[in-house]
Structure prediction request, 350 residues.
Amino acid sequence: MYLIEPKRNGQWVYDPGVSMAIQDYVKNHIFLDEDILFTYMMHPVVQIGKYQNAYEEVNQPYMDEHGIQIVRRVTGGGAIYLDDRNMSFCFLMDVNQSNDIFGNYKRLYEPAIEALKKLGVDENLLEQKGRNDLVLDGKKISGAAMTVEKGRVYAGYSLLTDPNYEAMVSALNPNMKKLESHAIQSVRSRVGSIRPYLAPEYQNMNVWEFTDYMLCELLGIDDVSEAKRYELTEEDWANIDQLTAEKYHNWDWNYGRFQQFEYKMTERFPVGTITVGLVVKQGKIADVQITGDFFGKKDTKEIEAALMGVRLRKADILEALQPFDLSDYFGNISTEEFVSFLMSEKVPTT
Prediction:
């Protein structure tokens, strides 16, 4: 497995947009003879999922006051707060060689769990739980995301060693349905830290020492200097700079994709929260927007396009969606379940 680090001229790149652009560029343009592992650590940022409405997820005044950026990733899932106190890890794995890892978060976390156990973390307190979380002593220490592109699984997670609880609580606007369904009272009550559970001899590890240790475990090497690396070329950097400017530093990508709609339905499914906004004119769907923290292999814009102009009637919507396998877009949800949810609010039908 190759290691790619966000370094330019030997210096670590903390800019969230550049870091995301590196991964985006590599997954689409760099194909090596083995899988790829990225590390990234950013200046304070809220990273939102591909299908989320930024305005519904963040506390913008707090973010402006504290210089916290926002960046949208190309995978689904929910909003997370990241900063330069915790390292994140991302993988590109050949879909044919990874033993159906897509959607299998337990398998994704297995190497990290084994590594944490060696640092003294009690294995009985570590558990992959829910849809995509890793919990320690009942509290979340990681959330993962995945997608599939060009024959490779693109997956990643962060590991919280020193979380900034105040920023997490203040920068994010938690989805109340999600909070209710998990019976929790606050972000802090469900987010944990790895450090208190490390063996005494590892308690004072800084983030770089922790990262080097994790890299050795994930790559199966004794010293990080042994890592097989791919160094980004000047041509790579030119393309990354262009992608950063056009996408990850672009307001339209981070904020402008979504808007407010006349009617909005939100429901918490096993696959995640799904929100659908509708504009209905003369009984037909004139505009539609699908957001949420679900994961999918295909873009929901295909579903939105299929619903345009369709009468707001169950039979018509079922017919419009008949050619699609919705599990490709949302995970394990049937067309009947989705349409029943869509019709659950009282909206005009004439």
